[in-house]
Amino acid sequence: MVIKLGITGGIGSGKSVVSHLLQVMGIPVYIADDESKRLTESDIFIIDQLRSLYGKDIYQNGKLNKSLLASFIFNDPLQAAKVNEIIHPQVRADLRNWFVAHNSNDIVAMESAILVEAGFISEIDYLVMVDAPLEVRLNRVIKRDSSSKELVMSRIKSQMDNEKKKEYAKFIINNDDECLLIPQITALIKQLQL
Question: DSSP for 36-90?
């Protein structure tokens, strides 16, 4: 039976690095953010629903007008919830199909920053939380995105608190730039294979 892992963590925690290392180790990983973007531009249901909510200009030349969508949902939780109600079920269906397509593997994983918040916890067997101290996360995102500290902090505050997220986690990977990741991931895989 295939073991389904969920990889999550706050912005700048390094969940993408952990997902990449899992892929290098031969474990397929469904990157929910990438797949969500793909579906938002290819899934007829999503396109029709977003157009009916926000008008035909929400798509330009077959591409989602992200800045226009952001103007509707930024600081408006009701609008953000409406968009999530359109997109998340389609991503869930796509994920389930992906799991079926990869059922010959012993372990598969999905990566999502909002795995718990979006209700995908029911789709996995074990949650792996990638964690790092706040200062480390801040510095990573400021450097990566050329953002201000204030903007990064506002993004961090908009996400579920890491301590709350840890309550759902079976495994925690420490990505504090001091602990080595590969031995932690190798130990996780060994533990799953027992």
Answer: HHHHHHH-HHHHHHHHHHH-GGGEETTEE-HHHHHHHHTT-HHHHHHHHHHHHHH
**Long-range contacts for 51-55 (Cβ within 8 Å, ≥24 apart)?**
53/82, 53/83, 53/86
Task: Map out the domains of the chain with their CATH numbers.
Answer: 1-28+104-194 (3.40.50.300), 38-101 (no CATH)
CA nearest 91: which of 120, 129, 66, 54?
Answer: 120
Helix/strand/coil for 109 = strand
Residues of the chain short of pLDDT 70, as ranges, are none
pTM: 0.91
Look up residue 174 and give its two tokens. Answer: 């420490």
